[in-house]
Amino acid sequence: MKGIRSLVLDVDSTLTALEGIDWLAAQRGGTIAEYVAGLTDQAMSGKLILDEVFELRLAAVRPSRNDIERLADAYLKSISPGAPEAIRAIRVAGIRIVLVSGGIREAILPLASMLEIPGSDLHAVGISFDEAGEMAGFDRLTPLSHQHGKRMVVEGLSLPRPTMVVGDGATDLEMRAAVDCFVAFTGVVRREAIVKQADVAVDSFSELMELVLG
Ligand SMILES: [Mg+2]
Predict the structure, then answer these.
(1) Do 44 and 169 contact (CB within 8 A), yes or no?
(2) Cα(148) to centroid(ligand 1), Å
(3) Taking ligand 1, which is a single-atom ion, which protein residues have CB atoms under 5 Å away?
(4) How many domains does the chain have?
């Protein structure tokens, strides 16, 4: 689809090969890891709504400041192949790029910075820490912990049209009503329920770049 003027990218399992909350849960080991990964999978495949799992997952993991710094490193190491090059080329073509994620903002900021995406174009869920560096809470006012939150954020941004959204999960698909083209990203996880409702599917960033720039 040539001629798009803005591109909205999901982060977890799209821009990076990780699900941040699952990565954090894996650090806690066995039972918590299985519990959290199970909730994530059900939410991203559309079997549970995000509202039902968001706080449960965070309460099970309670990431410290140190955990978030380590996740930020893991995100940088897990960036999808070809993504930096594709993002650079798409930006050079004059297309506005924003990240919209249900992940933790503090963990994604270094990745956004590496991709030269300003903090004001990263929309994710902020968390706060106490003096000991333990999690104190999360931004309860953000729509992004809710099923329709990504769509609400995109509607509020008034991005230049046509707008394309790229993501792997059910909360990405929710944005379809607010944009002109929904692309299912299958390079990390392929969810048939999402692919079926997508305008098109791509399995790599080089394929996405081809789709956007032709
Ligand atoms: Mg995702």
Answers:
(1) yes
(2) 14
(3) 10, 12-13, 168-169
(4) 1
